[in-house]
Amino acid sequence: MPLNAGENVFHEQSCEWGNANEWIWEGFKIYWRVLGIRENPPVVFVHGFGASSSHWRNNAKAFENAGYCVYALDLIGFGRSSQPGPKQIRKLDNFFWSKQLIAFLKEVVESDKCGKAVLVGNSLGSLVAITASVFCPKYIAAVVAAPLPDPAFMQRFSYPQTRFFLRLRNLFLTIFFNLLPLELLVPFIVKTGIIKKGLQAAYCKTINTDKELQILVSAPAKRSTAARALRAMCIGMSDRPKIHTAPALLDSLSNRARHLPILLVWGSQDRLVPLFVGQKIVNQYSWLKLFVIEKTGHCLHDESWREFNQLVLDWLKLNLET
Fold first, then answer.
1. What pLDDT score does 261 carry?
2. Longest CA pairwise span in the chain (Å)
3. Residue 22 confidence (pLDDT) above 60
């Protein structure tokens, strides 16, 4: 079922891979794609902040050719999916998106029938995939996090965790983000080209000639509901409980008798989440594997897609039983 014409501000581009579908979850419209034979082992791509399922334009076919059924969805607030604000949903965070992803695995991918899925995430999508693997491991065979961001990795101070302090902090953050004029800031960022400069920061090579990439990132930001969704994300990601941060999630996975296969992939020139963050993670969690793709930025799956596809497919062959 296609989205309403008023909501669809995308243009037809070659990045529109696979068969497009719409799924309703918790009253929200979710846009998703599929490519391949449904009976094949499932792999689900989870995009990063500001992106969508279109961002896997250079990956889907390679995984289909390798014998997977390839899925990707637009997380709520992004792409063509619903963009609710605090009044509709209060907040959007990685735990909420993980619930969306788990429901997708159960209801759309039908992991109960088709088997556990491989989750491949970029940036925020990696955090969502890791979160889902903690709270519903029965649907997940392995996770590829390319890369894995979380401000909690860089937190130097341990803030009080008393109920009073947390309520006070969350109240302050909610008031701040509700007063922030995002309805003015978001259109300004799109119209002045700031969004293009921000996108360039996620790539090592120039994106000046990649009009397709610029459209797939800027189009969702042009929707009338984009600002309110961003507000819900700001509130949600800033007042998360500690148990929903990446370090706590990895601690939970570390304490399990059998470790889930998790691969970290980093671009050597990642300016948004520098490589030393990935190195810090594997130093603390030695059971994780880290691979680095040279001369590549934050969106390594798109910028160096040939190397990324081969690396991940080779790793899956070694780490998953047939």
1. 96
2. 54
3. yes
